[in-house]
Amino acid sequence: MKETIACLLATCTTSVALAGGTTHVVTQVNLTFSPDVVDAMPGDTIRFEWSGGTHAVQDGNCLSTAGLFYSTLTAANPAFEYVIPADATPGSIEFNCPVASHCEFGMMGTINVLPAGGGWSAGDVQISEIRIDQPSTDNDEYFELRGEPGLSLNGLTYLVIGDGTGGFGVIEAVVPLDGYQIGANGYVVFHESTFTLISPADVVTVLNFENSDNVTHLIVSGFTGTNGQLLDSDQDRATCLTEVNPWDTIVSTCFLRINEMPDAASTQDCYYGQVGAGPDGTFVPGHVYLCEDGHYEVGGFTLATHDTPGADSPSCTVAVPGDLDGNGIVDGADLAAMLSAWGTADGDVNGDGLTDGADLSILLGNWTI
Q1: For residue 362, with 0-12 CB atoms within 10 Å meaning exposed, 13-18 middle and 19 or more buried, which class applies?
Q2: Is the backbone of residue 243 left (phi > 0), alpha (psi -120 to 50) or beta?
Q3: Which residues pair with residue 176 across a beta bridge?
Q4: Which of 219, 221, 262, 339 would disulfide-bridge 266, Cβ 3.0–4.6 Å?
Q5: What are the structural domains of the chain?
Q6: Does the bond joining 78 to the residue before it have cis omega, within 30 degrees of 0?
Q7: Over pLDDT 70: what percentage of the chain?
């Protein structure tokens, strides 16, 4: 058995690694639980320990309980253990002391259930909306994330890859997401202090997004890199791949582009990933939002045309397989684009990474008359 104790200021969390999961100890101290926030995974055990007085612990808030667990915490019953089910959905489980008015006096806490296996997977959290530009001063830059309500974002970092010292493929923005969680409505919005689109404010931070070139926004877990770090070390426009990847898992990505993927003879910067949006005419999109089928739509450059920070996005154009130029129809322009991309990934429709006869069959099958 290995025991680790991590202390922050006056709050200490004791975690004991055991076979089958980790035991997190929460101690009753007067009219409080310490710690009052626990990050745990399916299969972990939350052990509540008594230190004095007459108390109890149950799931829920001061007004209601879902009936997940209840136990007294007294001299006769000084400990109680709750095991998070193996199939628990990532999110939050509130707990409190229901004795007398102890909950109303602040005797409550939260268990943040993290993704199973100790790691993050693609799609656990999604980038659902981004604004990087607007008319006049960029006061309303933001990004919106969506996921299971109450899901802790601990261990995640929001990055932007653009250009900088060394060329393209440089990290130009780093926003740690530790300490935040998805809101009760399934969204959380990170924005600057000058933001005007929602009130009250959600999460205020410093963004200063680039808006004049190809950029890639992404969420990663286990980030160990630095702002300004060069990731695309070979600067090869023919591949547009990052050779340096200072993270464990890419959870979500969205590129905003001013042009199609460059080739070896191009002077345009690379962008990265398979999903995103743009261009908006001859410009990088100022605003993009996620559609239910997983593709991103270009929003209006003018503020509040399609912006819905903290709420569901507007209806999207249904993506048509083979519509390579994104105009809603499959026609000769798409056929020409596919043929020019033959043998590469640029015209790939079926997701196998190669433009070939299978993709041509899909395009012709969706031909717009």
Answers
A1: middle
A2: alpha
A3: 157
A4: 262
A5: 2-117 (2.60.40.420), 119-318 (2.60.40.1260), 320-369 (1.10.1330.10)
A6: no
A7: 92
Which amino acid would we find at residue 87? D
Stretches where the chain sits below pLDDT 50 are 1-20
**What are the Cα distances from residue 133, in Å, to 26, 143, 260, 287?**
46, 12, 20, 7
**DSSP, residue by residue, 50-102:** --SSSEEEEES-SS---SS-EEEESSSS-EEEEEPPTTPPSEEEEEE--STTT
For 174-191, what is each residue's pLDDT tens digit? 999 988 999 989 999 999
Burial, 344: exposed, middle or buried (Cβ in 10 Å; 0-12, 13-18, 19+)? Answer: middle
Could you give phi then psi for residue 365, rounded to 5 degrees?
-70, -20
Unique residue bearing structure tokens 């909306």: 129
What residues contact 50, with CB distance under 8 A and at least 6 apart? 28, 73, 74, 75, 77, 78, 79
CA 192 – CA 210 distance, rounded (Å): 14
